[in-house]
Q: What sequence folds into this?
């Protein structure tokens, strides 16, 4: 079962609610001897932290990570690594009037029907605040990947109808975080920002697409059949709040091309390594990495919390109108970029360790 | 680990290769007392069977399921249910010339780099023949769902650029299997058929989109956070051979709408049940079913096996040209429809059982 | 993998080291709606707490449990329940001289050979302090079992060669905690105490046996084959520090009786329920509970930390003599009683939930 | 869940009933490139086969293993290995009169109360015939261990009150299979045989103890906390039909010795390797192997099927007397020896692979 766990070898278990004491994660299966760079972890946390810019929620959280276990003299010991991030700026009073009403397109109704009760404060466990724990865990995964020169990138490639006009191969991926929107194409980033501001000012929200890119992944990662590398990536992304779609390689667009165009011809690279001349496969063939770049798109719906008054029903089935005063992002994508990175890092770290088991 | 298993409670483990003795599955966790309808299972198998029509591979397999365990006097006993489907028409000689060459966009290279060797006959374990086991297991899951009046549908909504012009809500879902293409919109089905025939005659292949619809799913299924119902569905679909994308509800198209349009207002239905006036959420909110229809799209790339001569390399990294004589589908989608149904049924059966654990 | 997790449905994941910030646990899979009695949890913690009596280690820990998540308005929500117990009286300086030496019959050498490094302070993760987290989790499991009138008992039935002369059926199980030794047979408890004091004064240690009894367990719990109820109990007990043996029902002694004497005849009880006239089966048949009392014995070796000077080797393989100044129990059994109870409760809670999945 | 699976990395899933088509196993996680010695597997099967000698059941089964998948050109491919053993000599008519009666100390009642129905033919899934699948899987595990020079032994050390007078260290372990009783101490073996024959002639049965020994296990195997090596071994043994107890190293007898006697002093061996001067730890410290011999005892109760008439009740709770005519072993131990070996091999193979994940 373990609904709050992800990963088989490098396995995370998260806990915590939006308005409880805090959010945490236990990593079980991180190998021993990894240099544990706390500064790196905190830097990753800063990328997701609320209150960073005018584009994000006004909730202020320092999001400092307390290391509760698993690290000794600066290195991982093989014991579980527990990390905890306290909530400091939760305002539960904002939710008093939502105790009995079901917010549209939120998890209020479904949690209540499943569990018979719900923590109505800020969405409780359903809050995207849970992703803080993913970012902390993903940073540890990234430390492991660094040893193998595997690089993870993610950026906002669309906000509403504003789309980045270039593919990832033509973008400066090192500059993603230079702009608060986290799009490395300056002109597009500005348009995205303007759209987000417009939505925010209208009390509305907007979705978009994040593109993920994994470079330097060695061939052989991923398991055939049910734990295909792209299936694990897809599951990871679809588990992030507000995600409604995932595609990798040629994705949905690849469905209109004939096989004769779509097939990626094998060739030999400059270092005698196996390469493909095109990469419609998105770096994964038969569920296993082939050494080429892995790339994928993740679709985020607009945030459900809008400032406009909405009609809904309450627990008694009576129509009610609600207006939400909680602090929320008009567009979740900029802050979701480090979450996509984190989940990617966890998937690849897990596959990397798992691959050690393939041969005698 | 268990790379060849899927599901937590209703758990399947498949085995077998394209050109070995056969394909099989063990279902562990099917509750006792389920009436085991062998005819239904065989009917489901017939939907996926090769050699059904001129649109599919010429390989002829009866695909009769032998029940090896778990059933007594017509009912499941709670013991694991093992089913086996013998291979009878495998022609391994077709693959002799591919022993050392890597077929483009196949799993030849990645399996070899992962395992140090590979079963080159018909793709071995990477063959879509593995999905026969999924269909058998999915039929058992469907028998369980029948008791709860949960209905699973899947149909071909696009082949290449030929798209079904109507949404699922306006299609006669009971007529999906009336046409060999498995599209319930007659005019479109004909166009799809013509396109597939054209590709086949050119020795080429084409991909497309399958739409899945789940009706009658009670609210409360799915687990928050990592086992969200749509994440499990997505993972299930992405584990099917040739799938490159998954979206549910509003999907990628939903990213361009503001929250004020996208949110699904709650209301009270005729039977006092909770409904939503629109269903951009695709029947899932916060990862848990809300009682509305669940619907999703699955993108399939074109089959990699084409009749045209292709350039590639061999194990020594030398360029070689290959021509494939194996029998393959010009378009995998018609035969993938029952596979999408099967994986959907397994996901929902698993969630249904899991939901029994939610409350004290 | 998940080496630090136990249980399938009611699943615990523990973390923390003896001399780190503290010890914690995440429970994933506790059903929603359970009244969460914090006082009960703290009372259970007190039973295991160090520094309770002259028979235990002098280390002083309040062992108060901080609830980090999963509880709202006094009830479980279905979200993971995280609990944390801070270390306050760890004296790492006691272990400076043991940095490089391998303490006999401790985990120093094996951890180092496995992980390439080790946290030498108080045994790190190998410390029995980890069991504090089990007691906290076990208390939550017990709260669930209370709703079903399932009662868990454990008591010290032997310390060294001092054995309780009566079977559990003739002992006042409600009085176990009346004596610091946790043996409900007063005379024997005194003899045990004297033996422990003698060992303590000699700077030595002694092992013994804890007997566990589960009353009120409904028939049908446990899974055939690999998750037999007694196999899960055995695994649970064998995972407790210092445990070297487990037997249930007639156990090792049952091997000398012929089947004609050993078989438990079925009969009908006063309430028309099925009973057995004898209970050599220990309440479990074919791995599944039959409604009779479940009882078992757990063998604990003597604590490895003795005050006497010992010969050993260091990391360089050189002979060294060591004397340990850490604070330890001369006999671990009295404080292990609540740990045996806790692990029993977790096993039964898990089986109880799992049983909901047995039938259609 | 996966009640019919065992092992995390080297993972087996078994299926089948005593009187169904047969018994099978799927091994998922066997690394690729292992030379697959079919003769060795069949030889192991012969050790467990019924009808071998006058000491065993008269049921005649060839127990030939059909390999259904996972092997290509004599080597494992990394794909799941499925093996199937057909039942050929099942006589279901023997059980017609037991349809409604609960055999004492069998799983009839507990299966029925759990599942609401049961396969009454030969115990169905509860039959020890399931262990045939374990032996097949264990043989594959042993092939893997052979590459690492790890040797597994098991022998009958007690039948009823007849006990082998020497410890394993003084016995010729290579000669275990020279005697049908599988005790390598000739004089004792004869006494055991006489006792078994006496019980058989009286229509009665008898239990005993099997001792397991693992030699050549490298240090570092096993996981701390819940997957301690001895906890996994214990769970494996307790999952075997009729097992009522498990102890390793000093076991229950070790509870009476003070720590100063029980501790195993470390020393340096002839090859500069770390050894201990005594081995009360049974080769496992803190749950991790230390390189010394691993040894343990497994207690088997007497077989429940006796020829004598017994009193019991039926499904209606009415008293009935039954006489069993099925063919059964008067003493299960000789045929359980290869099962103990098999489960040991699976546990060690799993730990061996898992250990690859310990360090960066």
A:
């Amino acid at each position: 079962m373990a609904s709050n766990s992800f990963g088989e070898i490098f396995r995370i278990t998260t806990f915590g609610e939006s308005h409880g004491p805090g959010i945490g994660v236990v990593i079980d299966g991180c190998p021993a001897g990894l240099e544990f760079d706390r500064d790196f972890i905190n830097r990753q946390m800063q990328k997701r932290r609320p209150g960073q810019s005018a584009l994000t929620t006004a909730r202020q959280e320092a999001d400092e990570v307390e290391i509760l276990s698993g690290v000794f003299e600066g290195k991982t010991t093989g014991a579980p690594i527990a990390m905890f991030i306290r909530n400091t700026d939760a305002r539960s009073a904002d939710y008093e009037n939502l105790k009995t009403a079901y917010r549209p397109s939120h998890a209020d109704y479904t949690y209540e029907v499943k569990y018979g009760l719900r923590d109505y404060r800020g969405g409780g466990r359903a809050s995207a605040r849970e992703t803080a724990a993913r970012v902390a865990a993903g940073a540890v995964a990234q430390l492991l990947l660094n040893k193998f020169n595997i690089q993870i990138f993610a950026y906002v490639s669309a906000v509403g109808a504003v789309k980045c006009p270039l593919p990832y191969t033509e973008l400066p991926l090192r500059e993603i975080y230079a702009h608060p929107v986290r799009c490395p194409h300056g002109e597009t980033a500005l348009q995205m920002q303007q759209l987000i501001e417009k939505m925010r000012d209208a009390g509305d929200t907007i979705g978009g697409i994040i593109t993920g890119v994994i470079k330097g992944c060695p061939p052989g990662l991923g398991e055939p059949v049910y734990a295909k590398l792209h299936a694990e990536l897809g599951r990871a992304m679809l588990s992030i709040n507000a995600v409604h779609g995932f595609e990798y390689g040629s994705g949905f667009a690849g469905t209109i091309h004939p096989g004769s165009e779509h097939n990626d011809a094998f060739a030999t690279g400059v270092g005698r390594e196996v390469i493909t001349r095109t990469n419609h496969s998105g770096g994964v063939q038969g569920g296993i990495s082939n050494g080429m770049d892995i790339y994928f798109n993740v679709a985020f719906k607009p945030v459900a919390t809008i400032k406009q008054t909405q009609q809904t029903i309450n627990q008694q089935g009576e129509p009610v109108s609600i207006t939400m005063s909680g602090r929320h992002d008009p567009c979740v994508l900029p802050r979701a970029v480090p979450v996509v990175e984190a989940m990617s890092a966890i998937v690849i770290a897990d596959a990397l360790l798992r691959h050690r088991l393939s041969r005698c």
User: Anything to note?
Assistant: The mean pLDDT of chain A is 95. Chain A touches chain C through 47 residues (CB under 8 Å).
